[in-house]
């Protein structure tokens, strides 16, 4: 059986606010990669519930954070189709993404 590891490193300031997020993975080569935000969701077997880690750095702009959230919803829409073949649920999530993207476009245009 092949194993792969993903490692996250979070640099915190004196108030425990993330200043830098880096990650590496055995399947991504030897390089260290940097991110402004991470969103990790795990389904806990024993608790039968979701455990989440949401972190973002001080330099993550609000508009990028909003786009990050919309992108995550879109990614979950693709995931639900792959995992369950529930196309209706995915289409509703995609519709929400479209609506939110249009909302963000208007915000960015100052309307």
Automatic annotation (TrEMBL):
NCBIfam families: GldC (TIGR03515)
Matching Pfam families: GldC-like (PF19937)
Organism ancestry: Bacteria, Pseudomonadati, Bacteroidota, Cytophagia, Cytophagales
InterPro entries the UniProt entry points to: Motility-assoc_prot_GldC (IPR019854)
Identification of the protein by name: Gliding motility protein GldC
